[in-house]
Flavin-containing monooxygenase
Amino acid sequence: MPQSPGHAPQPIVSRHVAVIGAGAAGLVTARELRREGHSVVVFERGDQVGGLWVYTPNVESDQIGLDPTRTTVHSSVYHSLRTNLPRDSMGFSDYPFVAKDDPDRDPRLFPGHREVMMYLQDFAREFGIDELVRFETEVVRVRFVEEEEKWKIKSKQRHKEMDEIFDAVVVCNGHYTQPLVSHVPGNFS
């Protein structure tokens, strides 16, 4: 909305913001928030940025996901996965996903998952986002504290739990974390 003559624009108030997840959405969210002058903390359950593009050969002990005590594996990619979109349509608008002249990189138009992960890692390094990330830190609970109009986050890193207060929270953990299994009477009892 245009300002009337003689009125200065309202300054942006810096906020302390939590971003949950260091995949593509979390990384670009953290960058944009920091560009706007906010203090940002990114919580990442894994040990590196990349989200669902981080491959692991491990599989869950209950692949349907019904057993709440199962060993949980947080990855959606498989070893031979390649993108179904060309690389030039996958990159961020101001950080193109171009092929690198490097024998360890995948120059194909439809690259493998490792190349996408490396692109996201390059992005995080380029914009200093990796320094904002708390790796191997799981968010256990997020709750709004009405009296303070703030968000309280309980996180766990290894065996240490921590409570922190944030002005805002952005959830960027994707939708591939918890399987959605329909209940069909008579099945999976």
User: Anything to note?
Assistant: The chain has one domain: 16-171. The chain is about 15% helix and 20% strand. The domain at 16-171 is CATH 3.50.50.60 (FAD/NAD(P)-binding domain). The first strand starts at residue 16 and ends at 20.
